[in-house]
Amino acid sequence: MESLAGVSVVVIGGGIGGLSTACYLADAGADVRVIEKNEQVGGRASRLEQDGFRFDMGPSWYLMPDVFERFFGDFDRTPSDYYELTHLDPHYRIFFKDGDQVDITPDLERTKALFEEYETGAGEALERYLEKSRENYEVGMKHFVYEDRERLRDYIDLDVARQARGLSLLGSMQGHVEGYFDHPKLQQIMQYTLVFLGGSPTNTPALYNLMSHVDFNLGVWYPDGGIGAVVDGITELGRELGVEYDTDRPATEIKGRTGGFEVETPDGPVRSDLVVSNTDYAHTEQNLLTPERRGYDADYWEKRTYAPSAFLLYLGVEGDVDELAHHTLVLPTEWDQHFEHIFDDPRWPDDPAYYLCVTSETDDTVAPEGHSALFVLVPIAPGLEDTPEIRDKYRNMILEDIATNTGTDLRDRIILEERFCIEDFANRYNSHEGTALGLAHTLRQTSLFRPPHRSKEVDGLYFVGGDTTPGIGVPMCLISGDLTAEKVLADHGGGLEP
């Protein structure tokens, strides 16, 4: 492997992508420093600890275990060197708002039987769907995720065409799922993972049916200690490789080019040969670079489709919440209106779909004895008006909805409550319009249509994270770190030009 010995790199932002890039660059010999504006690294995968309760503030599903194994394997480690995994059973529980309830378990035969209860032949259809999903996953990951095809000519290749033959590349997820299942509840079960991609059934490409392979075949896991334990593991790996971390140190401006960068901070400049930005792409370009150094203008960012923001309640409650599983989804029988209120007619949804994460069902270290720790996440459109009065009203509505549809009334048992919403995403993570995830995975914002890892205007400046390829989510950001490091090595692996 080419060496970066003698090359200094500052990584702006300690999210998953930045932490990943730092590990790869340090392993290649670079002198790497991560600077993070907040009090802890992790980015959107931050932790909240208060009064004996501990919450993952953002990502909470451990999916695609093969990606984590590959990441740590790149450094001759395994995930178990840093954290242990528990296979969740059930993977998740769904409460439909018409009173129906289902558990999706690791037992595929049981799931097929469940599908048959809703629609004759649906069990066999599920098998066929998952086979297609497995094919899309295996080919897509190998040839289109781990390989960064950033130019159109990278796709105009016979080998690429052969690999892509048969993949569900075009069309929407809604159309793809309708080809297998008629029952609306089965369609919802097959599409709930789109929330992790920041899309809807009608605007997400059918290729992402590969997420069903992730769900049903690879399984849903819990890292002991939560996603925060994964952040700790990646950070510790970085330290072992020589990465240094500065928290509470926001970047305010990026000056210079290859070999002569200065990243301004309130504590003085950080000098380096190269810069990798893990802050949101739009924030870097619009706030850290002067206009002539930007690859995209403000109009570009205003015309993008953004993933949802979220209304979050972090709750410490007295007693158990046994009606709820570790991962619990509450879905209206018709969820089209909720997606419309995110993407087409932005407003606070009247009858929302939402998610509850109850880590205390699996991990007794996240709450004091005799108590439960959970959070509620309602996807909402970014950029909405976000006031204390609106939060109060929505908080009361959601808690009532939980009591009505799950049988769990939390209202008189809450002893700790914190809220997080659009303004908090914007302030804590510098996210455009308070999006919780970044650029959505629409057909026009997938693969080569996402912003590149190399700056278009500044030599020596690189980007990593959910706005670049391969996209949104902890596993994808880990891979993004690898792809960005590959670009740095390709450009400077033989050392800097004198």
Automatic annotation (TrEMBL):
Entry keyword Oxidoreductase: yes
Single GO MF descriptor: oxidoreductase activity
Annotated metabolic or biological route of this protein: Carotenoid biosynthesis
Gene3D superfamilies linked: FAD/NAD(P)-binding domain
The protein's name in its UniProt record: Phytoene desaturase
Record InterPro entries: Amino_oxidase, Carotenoid/retinoid_OxRdtase, FAD/NAD-bd_sf
Amine oxidase domain sequence ranges: 16-489
Pfam families in the cross-refs: Amino_oxidase
GO biological process: carotenoid biosynthetic process
Keywords noted in UniProt: Carotenoid biosynthesis, Oxidoreductase
